[in-house]
Amino acid sequence: MSNKSLSVGDLCPAFSLLDQHGATINFSDLIGKQILVIYFYPKDDTPACTKEACSFRDSHADFADLGCKVIGISSDSVAAHLKFAEKYRLNFTLLADEKGAVRKAFGVPRTLFGILPGRVTYIIDKKGTIQGVFNSMTDPLGHIAHALETVRALQSVD
To answer: Is the pLDDT of residue 124 over 70?
Structure first.
């Protein structure tokens, strides 16, 4: 796979990762069931990542009402994800991409001279097509607002 960042209109790559409970989550099992908001973030329990995760948590009912599933992905381990989820009562799935293969498949760019993994949110329709992308390291709350706006727009077309 290339390192080209995926954009609106691209098909979401297939992947399989472990969630915070050690269960295997296959992308192919999710397609066709609901709209997905998949967000990549740098690291569990850091200030901006915690702010973003807690905002997704606090907006969970809004996403659920829209028939949408939120998934967070970072390179942290299953154990780190479980600790993070329990500490902040996160009510959505966290996936462990420890080797960075899924991040690479999505083409999520690195920032800060290539040191820090990027923060990018993808909104994927029921057919597996990316319908929205929000890329910002400095606006973690903007990811939630953009995702909700995009999902609402998709629902109005549906």
So the answer is: yes
